[in-house]
Amino acid sequence: MRQAVRAGTAPGALGAPLPTGKEKLEKVQQMFDEVAPRYELVNTVMTFGMDRSWRRRTINALALRPGARVLDLACGTGDLARELYERGYQSVGLDLSEGMLRAAHDVAAPLLVSDAAALPFANSSFEGVVSGFALRNIAELQASFDECARITRSLGRVALLEVDRPSNPLVRVGHDVWFKHGVPRIGALLSVREAYRYLPRSVEYLPPPPELAVMLEKAGFTHIEHRSVMLGTVQIVTATRLPRTSEPEAHLES
Predict the structure, then answer these.
(1) CATH top-level class for 2-220+235-241?
(2) What is the pLDDT of residues 27-72, one digit of tens each?
(3) What are all long-range contacts of 89-94, with beta carbons under 8 Å and residues at least 24 apart?
(4) Which of 63, 140, 221, 226 lies at a CB distance of 3.0 to 4.6 Å from 209, suitable for a disulfide?
(5) Domain range annotation of the chain
């Protein structure tokens, strides 16, 4: 049990300022390498098992026909990549943390190590991109959106699952108590304490929905939609890649 509650190397641990740029990239990579062995267990416990239904809704929001090639960006242990594959997509997972990829079990999709801001794929090589609770951990978010636009075909889709802050005051109070106090205690019991102290603070990195929309538009996406889930504690952001010239269109569900 002592191993489970060690201090770890989480970004901004013990109230320190949250890092940015290269320092954030390095700290996030180290942190996820450390939490990887029990990452899925902690996710299941702290979301009361609802995280799988959120992933399903994210894939539904992608609105692509089975058979489309879809990238799971910052895939972690491959939850979304696994779900995509099971539903008939050609999925590929990519993550900065080798530890997370090593902990990915029963994932038939190819898994690659890379930074989200420098994707190792050719232009227009995917019809869709998904991510699960990853945006706030990406060091260069605009560069990552630019890369997603580059690798996504005309009329391809992105569906981004993230935490959110409820607008209802009563729900917000309950959510803040759980997120800021309950989640770190679960992390301390089951995994690396400092990593799950960082988790509530990492929301500070996340731009509000209007700003996320502007960033996606700047990258080359349109028809941006924000969907609130679970009383506003979770959000799904979707967008469509602007048309390109002389390129096959993505196969959208009818």
Answers:
(1) alpha beta
(2) 999 999 999 999 999 999 999 999 999 999 999 999 999 999 999 9
(3) 89/59, 89/64, 89/128, 92/126, 94/119
(4) 226
(5) 2-220+235-241
